[in-house]
Amino acid sequence: MITKQTNENASIVFTCSGTSKRSTELTAEEHSVVRVLSGELKVIQSDKTYVFGAGDTYLLPRNRLALLVKSDKDGEPYKAIVVKLSHNILRSFYEANPSLVNSVSKTDHIVRLGKSPLFDSFFDSMIPYFNLEYQLPPELSQLKIREAVTILRTVNGDVDSILSDFSEPHKINLVEFMQTNFMFNMPLEKFSYLTGRSLTTFKRDFKKAFNTTPQKWLTQKRLELARFQLTEQKRKPIDIYFEVGFENLSHFSYAFKKEFGITPRELASH
Questions:
Q1: What is the CATH number of the domain that holds 108?
Q2: Do 149 and 22 sit in the same domain of this protein?
Q3: For the packed helices 138-155 and 87-96, what is the interaxial angle rounded to 10 degrees?
């Protein structure tokens, strides 16, 4: 079970996983800075996988698809602090410092942030906030977010190109995007938004490109990926079903047998 403590004013979140492994998908609408306190976090994107342990810090750019696998490690549950960098604070900062706005980065990748006593002090200072019996004053939470931005820019001089990007997704190549990101299990509305389309236009363009519906195509692609991982990579069904886009193991097994006439477990045991 995932427990989450958060202060709505602060946009600062403490998460703790009480299970040995927990997976969630993320398409954050705001940039986020994450410090892993304990346990292990695997961040899986379409073309790259990152592993973060206790003391690691990373920046997750907004509107980037990622699968998060949170696990216990060394007897400790996964715990992390997430600081969301609000559009309003970032926009105010870069409007006041226009010389810092350089070419906007369209990177889809996570930014691994280096070790720094500045990060250590920053996140240590926030831990007591989660024991408060009252909400953190919004003025203080905004101050902490501004502090996070300052530290980010001090530790990594390249983040301006990411943080100063306030553009919305534009219309992109639908076929290329779907072939790359089909394993992410999210609503069609999110797929359409990330490809720069309305839902109606997305469905129309999808039908034209693939000659089928998005739901049928996504299921087929996910099952084909699952079969490859079971047969060629010798992975177990319980380790892959979420990574290939299914919400639970029973639904995955049912769909797999319906498609291939054999259960994932039976195929994996061959």
A1: 2.60.120.810
A2: yes
A3: 60
Q: Which of 41, 40, 29, 33 is nearest to 65 (CA)?
A: 29
Q: What is the pLDDT of residues 95-126, one digit of tens each?
A: 888 887 765 555 568 899 989 999 999 999 98
- For residue 192, what are the CA distances in angstroms to 20, 30, 75, 197, 223? 34, 18, 41, 5, 22
Q: Is residue 210 part of a domain?
A: yes
Cβ neighbours, 10 Å, residue 204 = 12
- Helical segments of the chain, H only: 87-96, 117-126, 138-155, 160-163, 174-181, 188-194, 199-210, 214-231, 237-240, 249-260, 264-268
Residue 262 lies inside a defined structural domain of this protein:
yes
166 vs 183: CA distance, rounded Å: 27
In a domain, residue 168? The reply is: no
- Same structural domain for residues 178 and 131? no
Contacts of residue 150, defined as CB under 8 A and 6 or more positions apart, other chains included, come to: none
The answer to whether residue 199 is domain-embedded is yes
Q: Measured between alpha carbons, how far is 2 from 20 in angstroms, rounded to an integer?
A: 11
- 239-262 confidence digits (pLDDT tens): 899 889 998 899 999 999 999 999
102 SS3 class = coil
Find the domain containing 260 and state its range.
174-268
| Residues 162/107, Cβ–Cβ less than 8 Å | yes
Residue of higher predicted confidence among 136 and 70: 70
> Residue 85 — φ and ψ, nearest 5°?
-95, 100
Backbone angles phi, psi at 140, to 5 degrees: -70, -40
Cβ contacts of residue 124 below 8 Å, gap of 6+?
none
